[in-house]
UniProtKB/TrEMBL annotation:
It comes from the Eukaryota. It comes from Sus scrofa (Pig). The gene is LOC100153360. It is found in: Cell membrane; Membrane. One of its GO terms (cellular component) is plasma membrane. Belongs to the G-protein coupled receptor 1 family. This is Olfactory receptor. One of its GO terms (molecular function) is olfactory receptor activity. The chain crosses the membrane at residues 24-45, 57-80, 100-118, 138-160, 191-219, 240-257, 269-287. Keywords: Cell membrane, G-protein coupled receptor, Membrane, Olfaction, Receptor, Sensory transduction, Transducer, Transmembrane, Transmembrane helix.
Length: 304
């Protein structure tokens, strides 16, 4: 519920106030966003229609690419449009919607990465029971739980935001609506709400990051029992996953697992995990995965 709120719209400061730099931002980020959509779309469609990519790993990769495309869409289009707009105005309702969608798809990406690490652990450490444990029914149930968990996280974030009264300045020192910049504008003591945000988003980032590294530590330790070929293939797959995890989690932990403090570098860090990582993920998974590249080449060459 909106409480004592006299602000109906916000003004986004964007990445820069320089007119020339804003034109460069428009060109660069339009290209990056379109490349992100194309790369993730290719992976989604390849997994959807390929007959060879039917293992649980590619089932989860399908949802990771979908979450990447949606996650990037929550911020990139507004950044691109605002870079050529005189007034970077966003309404209160649009701001709340952006916060919900941003945290929903960001949390979905976190949960899918955890599911992918569980899948790799079962495939490498429990190979004889892998097909039984990671059945299609189990994988579907896990993804459904990820959707529900993401929704709960986003609802918690948006309910905290709706409690904030805004009665004065309405300039958000960012290029999209997020909790931390909005707390600076609230007409109340935000210490308790900030603790809730750090506990919510920060804990999810930190705990899942630790869980992922523990799981991959077990996986890498178990590779000693594998054959040379199996060790090489497993190591290649796990290396891709670890790269993705580091690229996504380190900026997120820097942003959300700390008290309310705004740093000048925050905007560039946000650019990296909202626009850069969704583009790098499909590149990492395709360039380092011969099976995906072969399936993509075979499927699209036959179609075109």
């Amino acid at each position: 519920m909106q409480v004592n709120n006299s602000v109906n719209e916000f003004i986004l400061s964007g990445l820069t106030q320089d007119a020339l730099k804003e034109k460069l931002i428009f060109v660069i980020f339009l290209f990056l966003y379109l490349a992100t959509l194309l790369a993730n779309f290719l992976i989604v469609m390849t997994i959807r229609y390929s007959q060879t990519l039917r293992s649980p790993m590619y089932f989860f990769l399908f949802y990771l690419s979908f979450a990447d495309a949606c996650f990037s869409t929550t911020t990139a289009p507004r950044l691109i449009v605002d870079s050529i707009s005189e007034k970077k105005i966003i309404s209160y309702n649009e701001c709340m919607t952006q916060i919900f969608a941003f945290h929903f798809f960001g949390c979905m990406e976190i949960f899918v990465l955890i599911l992918m690490s569980c899948d790799r652990y079962m495939a490498i450490c429990k190979p004889l029971r892998y097909t039984t444990i990671m059945s299609q029914r189990v994988c579907g149930a896990l993804v459904n739980l990820a959707w529900v968990g993401s929704c709960i996280h986003s609802l918690a974030q948006i309910l905290l935001t709706l409690r904030l009264p805004f009665c004065g300045p309405n300039v958000i020192d960012h290029y999209f609506c997020d909790m931390q910049p909005l707390l600076k504008l609230a007409c109340m003591d935000t210490y308790i709400i900030n603790l809730h945000i750090v506990f919510n988003s920060g804990t999810i980032c930190m705990v899942s990051f630790i869980m992922l590294f523990i799981s991959y530590a077990f996986i890498l330790h178990s590779l000693n029992k594998q054959s040379a070929e199996g060790r090489r293939k497993a190591l290649s797959t796990c290396t891709s996953h670890i790269i993705v995890i580091i690229l996504f989690y380190v900026p997120c932990i820097f942003t959300y697992a700390r008290p309310l403090t705004i740093f000048p570098v925050d905007k560039m860090v946000a650019v990296f995990y909202t626009i850069g990582t969704p583009l790098l993920n499909p590149l990492v998974y395709t360039l380092r995965n011969a099976e995906v590249k072969n399936a993509m080449r075979k499927l699209w060459c036959n179609k075109f």
